[in-house]
Amino acid sequence: MRDEARPANGSPAIAAVPKIRLRGLTKRFGDKLVLDGIDLDVMARTSMVVIGGSGSGKSVLLKCILGLIEPDAGSIEIDGQDVLKLDREAREAVRNRIGMLFQNGALFDSLPVWENVAFGLLARHKASRAEARARAIEVLAQVGLAASVGDLWPAELSGGMQKRVALARAIAAQPDILFFDEPTTGLDPIMGAVIDGLIVDCVKRLGSTAVAITHDMASARRIGDRAAMIHKGRIIWEGPATALMDSGNPVVDQFTHGRREGPIQMELRR
Amino acid sequence: MNAALDFVAAIGRGVLGACLVTGRLALFGLNGLSHWVRPPFYGRMFLRALIEIGYFSLPVVALTAVFTGMVLALQSSTGLSRFAADSAVASLVVLSVTRELGPVLAGLMVAGRVGAAMAAEIGTMRVTDQIDALTTLSTNPMKYLVAPRLLAGLIALPLLVVIADILGVLGGFIIAILKLGFNSGIYLNNTLNFLETQDVVSGLAKAAVFGFLISLMGCYHGYNSRGGAQGVGAATTSAVVAASVLILAFDYVLTELFFAR
Ligand SMILES: Nc1ncnc2c1ncn2[C@@H]1O[C@H](COP(=O)(O)OP(=O)(O)O)[C@@H](O)[C@H]1O
Ligand SMILES: [Mg+2]
Prior knowledge:
The complex is a heterodimer.
Chain A: E1 20-29, E2 32-42, E3 47-51, H1 58-66, E4 73-78, E5 81-82, H2 88-95, E6 98-101, H3 113-117, H4 119-123, H5 129-142, H6 159-171, E7 177-181, H7 189-206, E8 209-213, H8 217-223, E9 226-231, E10 234-240, H9 250-257
Chain B: H1 2-34, H2 43-53, H3 58-77, H4 82-127, H5 130-136, H6 141-178, H7 184-194, H8 197-223, H9 228-259
The structure holds adenosine-5'-diphosphate (ADP) and magnesium ion.
């Protein structure tokens, strides 16, 4: 349906160019330095998991790539093209290729579920309302939801179902790149595993490149091909997701094993 | 000496801050307005806002108008001789209602109802990332959320004020006939004789400005809210207070514009 939007995929000539390439990405809010020179490469058709403590700037990182937050310095290349140097329309075109699952779903609570899922299609005039509805029901089925769910309101759904709907909305336009911000936070472990499975399926089926943020080590190993840890505004470790539990990096080890003692000092009030 | 300097510095900071907010508001308003003429226009969102602002405000605006007209008739009849009262009550009621009280009271009531609701809805969308989600789904939030509400405010309030005008005069009429014992034919005659087109038109123009201001304050404070439920609460309060004060200030400015010779 949208094959023209992703010419680079699988083409051997540019296989070496990362899908997403961040260099020196910096962002401060007031005098708080949140991102302090992030360098990260994500290769096409792979999944990168980003781990890091709460408030370490993981969501800000994704929002910078999406163009929702303007970084102070650094470059963001997608398919070798620096998006920060593009004009507004070209940036919008890049953004249209990215699907985002927000941290708490961010479903539109004034619209029924099916319209949430079909929102991007309707906004881009890719379909009439009837077609968009049919497509929404189709995508809902892909995330294991019955057609009848389409007529419910987001507030009527359980947390796990909301996450599925948010996932359906993110993949409805068959994006080239998918971002997941803490997709399993707040779910029970079984539902978390189910959502992880759906994410892996969707990414595989679409042949997309994925970046997922998580605190959950089981989830990180299920979703990710590679993993990176963000700490104090920088990427301090990057490697295969399978190596997360024995990375050899003391900071990563403390985080992945959830140890109270270690190089990361929690700022606790005494 | 130092105290005096501090005082001057404080005033300076206040003035600069006010300029900054005014500038931001003006930019926000102009940005919203510019989407009226740049497609797509979200008719669905416009109709929703029109119903929310206009239709659902009808009861509260109607009650306010009726009671205001009743009070005006009662107050203005005391202290006047029977003869003078005959024409004075009718004219005072109709002129006060159409020129001033209709638009101002309807504006204040709608500011409390709709300004607050708008700020709360858009503020919640901000703090739950729904506004960011709109952007990622190829939809400009200024176009989708703000522009339709600004237009709906501008159109809905004059419609409400037409009804408020009629009901206000009706309230005065009821008291004049039932309580003050006026002749209904003479009262109505006096009402129509004293009323000029400009009285009604100026009132409706005021209403359009007030409606725009209410939507602007609701949208602006909601759009810029930060920090969870508390931030949304603060945005709601700010929207209502700012809209109310602006309505009264603009009422003066517009009256000066329309009537001062
Ligand atoms: N729009 C904003 N304005 C000011 N500060 C922000 C904003 N967004 C995020 N922050 C701050 O940036 C830091 C990182 O936030 P975030 O990326 O959401 O953390 P997390 O890694 O948990 O996702 C936090 O301290 C947060 O307060
Ligand atoms: Mg986050």
